[in-house]
Amino acid sequence: MQRYIAFLRAINVGGHNVKMDLLRTHFEALGLANVATFIASGNVIFEAAEDARALETQIERHLRQALGYDVATFIRSAPELAAIAAYRPFPAADLAAEGGTLYVAFLPEAPPEAVQSRLLALRTPTDDFHFHGRELFWLVGTRLSESPLFNGGSVEKTLGMPMTMRNISTVNKIVDKYAAPD
């Protein structure tokens, strides 16, 4: 059995409120083991023998039927998430700058080079981006809600694919609790 972390989109935002005990029940109904949730933003930890891609499809289908709306699902194995948390996409000084926060956007696949170039062209003095595999690292030098690229969904529209984001501190806490290397 492999430990996985599912990052769900559209959980407890935009009027889609789901209690974490109900979310755990939905995952358990799929036969997934040792299901846990971490904060109420759609982070589900579980164990399964199946392939992550197959699980994404299975979970999305089940949640669409159970909740009545699409829930994009992005699964990473515990070692993958530990590597994401350890990755340093920006210089330490940039990460330590006052008001700056690093976000990780989980994507279904690595975007093609042309798409990456289009997004990188949108950089602003307060928004910087870095791609690494299936993740987009977004360094925001202000509150995320104040970024001109956040409101209106410019980033996702440019990518042309769904994503869900987590603050790097949330990613680090999940790694510390569920995915720390032995």
What descriptors fit this protein?
four-stranded antiparallel sheet, single chain, Alpha-Beta Plaits, 2 domains, 182 residues, alpha+beta
Overview of this protein structure:
- The protein is an alpha+beta fold and 182 residues long.
- The chain folds into 2 domains: 2-79, SP0830-like domains (Alpha-Beta Plaits, 2-Layer Sandwich), CATH 3.30.70; 87-179, Alpha-Beta Plaits (2-Layer Sandwich), CATH 3.30.70.
- Helix content is 36%, strand content 25%.
- It has helices at residues 20-29, 52-67, 78-86, 92-96, 113-120, 154-159, 168-179; strands at residues 2-8, 33-37, 43-48, 73-77, 101-106, 127-132, 135-140, 164-167.
- The strands form 2 sheets. A 4-stranded antiparallel beta sheet has the order 2-3-1-4. A 4-stranded antiparallel beta sheet has the order 6-7-5-8.
- A hairpin with a 5-residue loop joins strand 2 and strand 3 (43-48).
- It is globular, with a radius of gyration of 16 Å.
- 27% of the residues are buried.
- The mean pLDDT is 93.
- What is the count of β-strands? 8
Order of SSEs? EHEEHEHHEHEEHEH
β content, as a range?
15-25%
Mean of residue pLDDT values? 93
Annotation field: number of helices: 7
Reported for the largest beta sheet, the result is: 4 strands, antiparallel
Unreliable spans? none
CATH fold-level name of the largest domain = Alpha-Beta Plaits
Q: N- to C-terminal separation?
A: 16 Å
